[in-house]
Amino acid sequence: MKKPKLLWLQSITCNGNTHSFLNHPELFSILSHFELLYHPVLETAHSLEDLNAKRLTCDILILEGSFKKNGVKKLGIEVLDVVEYYAKEAKHIITAGTCATFGGMFKTYDPENISGFCYDEEEQTSRYEMYASKLISLPGCPIHPKWLSYVLMMLVYDKKIPLDTMHRPQELYNITVHTGCSRNEYFEWKVDTKGFGLKEGCLFYEQGCQGPYTRGSCNKILWNDVSSKTIVGTPCFGCTEPTFPKTALFSTKTNMGIPAKMPLGVPRRAYLTATGIAKSFKIKRFEERIITYED
Amino acid sequence: MKIADKKALKRESIIQVSLQLFSSHGFHRTTIPDIAKKLGMSVGNLYNYFSSKDVLAKEIIKYTSEVLGDEIRAVNMLEISSKDKIEKIVTIYFTMAKEKPEMIEYFLRVYLSHREVFKDGCEGMTCVSGFITEIMIFFDDGVSSGELRNQDFFSAFGLFMGYLGGMVFLKGEEILPHSLDDYIEDISRNIYAALKSE
């Protein structure tokens, strides 16, 4: 089988997705299925000069970082110009990370001029129409290495990847970060955590957790194969969402004690009815520590 | 009419008659035979619908909460200011106190006064969620639009509902010199003044 040609290009980026992918325990096994034309930190057959000369062809283009129309150059060449050349060439375009997908963190620097490749937050950019048919969105800050390997291996074996309306793989993004969270019992019974880092309590009510309305599989495909933000006691920051980044990440915005944002797809009336009832009961187990240490 | 529909109607009429009797004669002084007699049905048949007086008492509070909740829900659906919604909610509450006094009386004189009956099965907000949910939505909308001040839910809830309940209680005790209608405007203004954004 001929190996697909893989090209990883960066625009305005912190390298977060590059570094995240390097943590994949099967990194080289995965890459062995591809002819890696260029990668920002791994040794590859071609240089940035080769890329800028537009002499190569690629099958899968991975984009990292947000995009600005003018003024972002590498070796004196506009990055977007090179990116668009290979985007037209590629059979598949993967926007790896929230910056490449929606604009992300770097968009806050110049919101008017910086965006994702095909989306500017939730709005489609002028490029969208041209590339939509081959676009796969992988938002996340950073993406989990296994989200990317899932997509890459599906492409290698020519498997169809069901996508949602924003081109995100449904397998990864049609659940929320809340799915699989070890604190779900506390969420069900509306027991808030008493502080960061504790094993007990839910982070949604006061600590700013965005897990219940953030699309992502952080609690299904664990980070470093062992854990996640919410499991260790830090709120989900909603990093996969078009609206990322937000401010006041460690406190929940409430209107008279009612969370201003409801869990994904849950009508407010249904949520308030269920929570009102759940809150009416005190479940002893959820008021206690999971582990009691003797002095 | 289907048997299930007939049963539902009968069930509702039991709730309404018991509501009147409990509110006017008191919870403890009203017996299941009293209720059955007023409905013209046998005691045995009434037990087919509600297995005990306590169960009936809990169903009534759920029923009244749903009725009041439905009325407030209709207000919540309106595209009007929180200020106008307050006046509508006050009007609904006082109208209900006037036209269906047993509803409010039941809440004040049975539900709040006989906690031992409700402690199992009506914990916290369990049996009044139909009403509480709508009040929450009213507050949430008001704060979201910037019209109401963001504050603790119970501080606002106590101010609003405690005030209305207190007025109806005073009316029930025949202490109020005027009809409840005469107080709607002032009370609505007071509530708004206490809840609005600074």
How would you portray this structure in words?
The complex is a heterodimer of chains A (295) and B (198). With 295 residues, chain A is α/β, with parallel strands linked by helices. Chain A contains 13 helices and 13 strands. Chain A has a five-stranded parallel sheet, with helices on both faces. Chain A has a two-stranded antiparallel sheet with strand order 4-8. In chain A, strands 5-6 form a two-stranded antiparallel ribbon. The longest helix of chain A is centred in the middle third of the chain and has 12 residues, at 145-156. The relative contact order of chain A is 0.11. Chain B is an all-alpha fold and 198 residues long. Chain B has one domain: Tetracycline Repressor, domain 2 (Orthogonal Bundle), CATH 1.10.357. In chain B, α1 crosses α6, α4 (53-76) runs parallel beside α8 (129-144) and α5 (82-99) packs across α6 (101-111). Chain B is elongated. The relative contact order of chain B is 0.12.
The biggest beta sheet of chain B is recorded as: none
Count of runs of 4 or more consecutive helical residues of chain A: 13
Taken in chain order, the helices and strands of chain A follow as EHHEHEEEEHEHHEEEHEHHHHEEHH
Fourth-tier CATH superfamily name of chain B: Tetracycline Repressor, domain 2
Shape of chain A: elongated
Query: Widest sheet of chain A: strand order?
Result: 2-1-3-7-11
Proportion of β residues of chain B? under 5%
> What is the level-2 CATH architecture name of chain B?
Orthogonal Bundle
In total, how many beta strands of chain B? 0
Spatial separation of the terminal alpha carbons of chain B = 56 Å
The CATH architecture of the largest domain in chain A can be given as 3-Layer(aba) Sandwich
Cα distance, first to last residue of chain A?
Answer: 63 Å
Assembly type of the chains comes to heterodimer
Note poorly predicted spans of chain A.
Answer: none
CATH topology of chain B: Tetracycline Repressor, domain 2
Return the domain count of chain B.
1
Biggest β-sheet of chain A: count, sense, barrel? Answer: 5 strands, parallel
Instruction: Please indicate the count of domains of chain A.
Output: 2
- The CATH class of the largest domain in chain A is identified as Alpha Beta
Helix amount of chain B: over 70%
Radius of gyration of chain A: 21 Å
